[in-house]
Amino acid sequence: MDSSASDSSATSSNRHEYRLIISNLAHDVSRKDLEDHLRKVGEIVYYTKKGAIVGFSTPSAMKKAFKELNGSQLKGKHIQLTEYTDRSRSRIRSTRARGLSLSSPHR
């Protein structure tokens, strides 16, 4: 029984192997607002008021979401998408205590 549980969690983590960081959110954007904006393209795997991480099952789904949503408007602000990398992961972990700054490193 334990092996099926671990297989299930492994499948779940693989489901979001490809990720984008969303930043430049308006201060009043709720998780539900963001879910509604992203409903057709990806699933939120991490959320704060300052940004989020959205997961995708394939690289093509991630690229499609990037093309469709990068610069799109949500509650009056143009959201910014950046590919999530191991470097992003370290930055997110180190800034979590300070409120999670998700600004794009390529300005």
Describe the structure.
The protein is α+β, with helices and mostly antiparallel strands. It has a single domain (16-98), classed as 2-Layer Sandwich (Alpha-Beta Plaits). It is built from 4 helices and 6 strands, in the order αβαββαβββα. The protein has helices at residues 2-14, 31-38, 59-69, 86-95, and strands at 18-23, 43-48, 51-56, 73-74, 77-78, 80-83. Strands 2-3-1-6 form a 4-stranded antiparallel β-sheet. Strands 4-5 form a two-stranded antiparallel ribbon. Pfam families: RRM_1. Keywords: mRNA processing, Nucleus, Repeat, RNA-binding. Residues 18-86 form the RRM domain. This is (Mediterranean fruit fly) hypothetical protein.
* Sheet with the most strands: spatial strand order: 2-3-1-6
Cα gyration radius (Å): 14 Å
Tertiary shape: globular
Q: What is the overall pLDDT average? A: 77
Please tally the β strands and state the result.
Answer: 6
Structural class label = alpha+beta
Roughly how much helix do the residues carry, as a percent range? 25-40%
Q: Proportion of β residues?
A: 15-25%
SSE order, one letter for each helix or strand: HEHEEHEEEH
CATH class categorisation:
Alpha Beta
Largest sheet properties: 4 strands, antiparallel
Q: How many DSSP helices?
A: 4
CATH homologous superfamily, by name? RRM (RNA recognition motif) domain
CATH architecture: 2-Layer Sandwich
**Span from first to last CA?**
50 Å
The CATH topology: Alpha-Beta Plaits
